Amino acid sequence: MGSLAEHVSTGSLDRREVIKAILDKRGDALVVTGLGSSCYDAGVYDHPNTFYLWGAMGAAAMVGLGLALAQPKRRVVVVTGDGEMLMGLGALATIGAQKPSNLAILVMDNELYAETGMQPTHTARGVDLAGMAKSAGFAVSETVHTQADLDRAIGALYGTSSPVFIDVKVSNKRYPMSIRMRDGAHIKNRFRENLLGSKAFD
Amino acid sequence: MESNVKAETPARPWASDVFAALKRLQIEQVAFVPDAGHTQLILECHKDPSIQAVSLTTEQEGVAMLAGAWLGGQRGALLMQSSGAGNCMNMLSLAQECRFPMLILVTMRGEWGEFNPWQIAMGQSTGKLLEASGCVVQRVDHAGEVAEVVFAGGQMSFSTNRPVAILMGQRIIGFKDWSK
After folding, report:
1. Residue ranges of domains in chain B
2. Identity of the residue in B61, B68, B97 whose CB atom sits nearest the CB atom of A94
3. What are the structural domain ranges in chain A?
4. Which residue among A59, A94, A195 sits closest to B91, beta carbon to beta carbon?
5. CATH assignment of A15-201?
6. For A152-181, how does the pLDDT look when each residue is reduced to its tens digit (9 = 90+)?
7. pTM across the whole model
8. How do residues A8-37 score in pLDDT, each as one tens digit?
C-alpha cells in the first residue's frame, strides 16, 4: 500500500453537502459534533440544539450516549470524524452493550487527520469502522459511498429504534472554519436553556 | 498468619449510605469501571429503576457520558478505582472548559498497606492529577463520614457547576493481607 504519505480519500461525497442533507432533516433532534471539521461543518447550520466539541478528542459518541439516556424521547445524532471516532473506539462497545433506542452516530470519513496536516488515519489503511460498530452490536451499521446510499442512510439515521452507525466516505476537500462560537460554557448553557427552559438553571 | 491474599469482599457498611447520598442528590446516571470497593454500590444502582447504570470500557468514557447527561438535564456520578484516574485527564478538559458538574467517586489503591507495587504510581498521583485537571478534590478516610462527604461533594458539584472528585481512602475500602 506504500507510505500513504499523500493519501487521497477514497470517498467522493462533499462533506458540506452531506451535513446539509443531514441537518435539513433534523426536526427536533439533538446534535453533538466532534472537534475539527465536523464542528465547522455543523456550524454552517448553527442551531441551539447542537452541542459543539472543540476539543476532548474521542468524546463525541459518549456525550451522545449520556444525552440519549437523559432524553429518551428525542433523537440524538452524533456527527464526528474518523480520527475522533478512532480515538474513542471503546464507546462503540459501551453503546453496543447499552443499546439506546434513540442514538445515531455519523462519521464523516475522509480517511485523514485534516486539522493536523492531512495525515492518513487507519481508515485509509483499510480499518472498517462500520464493521467494528456492527460487531459491537449496532443493529444498523453501514458505509456510504454514493448520494443514493446517503439518502437511504439518512432515513435510517432518524428512523431506527436501535443504535445506528453510518460511515460516510467523503472527499478530502477542506473548508474554512465556519462557526466562531467556541466558549464551552456558553455552548453548554445555550443548549441546556433551549432544551430545558428555566430548569437549566435550577 | 496462615492465610494468603484474601479474595473475599469485606463488609462495607457505608456502601448503602453512599447509595442513599446519590439518591438524595437525584443522581440518575451512574457510569463505572468496576472496583471491588464499589461492588455493593454498583449492585444497588443496577437494582434501582430510576438510575441508569452504565459499564464502561475505560473511565474517560464516563466523563464524556456524564457531560451528555447534564446536557440532557440529568445528574451523573462516575465510579472508578484510582488506577483509572489517569485515563480521564484529556476528557476532563471537557468538564473544565464547559463547567460540567459531575461527582467522581474514586476508591483508592496505592496507599494504605498496598501490596501491589503497580498500584503506587497512580495511587500516589491521583489527587494531584485530578486537581491539575480542574476537579475540586476532597478526601474521606473515616467510614462514618463517607456518606456525608459524598453528599456534600455532590451538592458542591451540582450547585456550582464543576467536577468534584471524592477520594475514598484505601483504609476504609479494606486491607488485603499479603502475609504468607
Report:
1. 15-173
2. B61
3. 15-201
4. A59
5. 3.40.50.970
6. 999 999 999 999 999 999 999 999 889 999
7. 0.95
8. 899 999 999 999 999 999 999 999 999 999
